[in-house]
Specification:
Layout: E1 4-5, H1 8-12, E2 21-24, H2 37-43, E3 48-51, H3 63-67, E4 71-76, H4 83-90, E5 95-98, H5 101-113, E6 117-120, E7 134-137, E8 140-146, E9 150-160, E10 166-167, H6 176-182, E11 183-193, E12 213-216
Parallel strand pairs: 1-12, 2-3, 2-9, 3-4, 4-5, 9-11, 11-12
Antiparallel strand pairs: 6-8, 7-8, 9-10
InterPro entries: 3-oxoacid_CoA-transf_A (IPR012792), CoA_trans_fam_I (IPR004165), NagB/RpiA_transferase-like (IPR037171)
GO molecular function, one term: CoA-transferase activity
Protein name: Succinyl-CoA--3-ketoacid-CoA transferase
Amino acid sequence: MSKIYPSPAAALSGLLRDGMTIMSGGFGLSGNPESLIPEIRASGIRDLTVISNNAGADGFGLWMLLESRQVRKMISSYVGENKLFEQQYLSCDLELELNPQGTLAERIRAGGAGIPAFYTRTGVGTVVADGKPAEIFEGEEYVRETWLRADLSIIKAWRADSAGNLRFRKTARNFNPNMATAGKVTVAEVEEIVPDGTFDPDCIHTPGIYVDRVVLSTINEKRIEKRTVRQRESV
């Protein structure tokens, strides 16, 4: 049965509610589910816990949900390029659970793999470890981290077929594949929907078993977060 939906709004129909936890793919401005986020904003749901590497940039991505005050808590790794995020956190309008980036990725992977907890050296001796159990392994201290799972994962891929098999391009293959496995429901927006049988099975990045709904992207801006140029040398 085809998993393809006719629009981003249709792909999210019946899935959204107040107080839910949402995983949102993306790394900086790459691989953000640009078409699904505006539909979440339009739905008006509130008190969201959002798990994402960052919360978009000014005017882009998850910034839209911060601007509309729909997010109660962010579980993130990097917040440095988002002034609104900073302002809301410093004014105590937004709860933040800050994670080392590798720990965040592994917590999401663990959630998808059914692993409730794991130990890591990252964060030992810092505020990251405060209040968390620790154990000694081979003479070194390790802090225990727990899995992350979500009611809904929204991700962005390059291509999909009707079964929901996905392929990603370059940096967009960041948090998206792991998040696809860790949501009770996963909705993937894609740049292109291809005929069944197009993908070599060995080249599928995310198998369709992890993807519940697929929709063609309506927004594909591909912004550049920071552009650095040099003056052309005179001849």
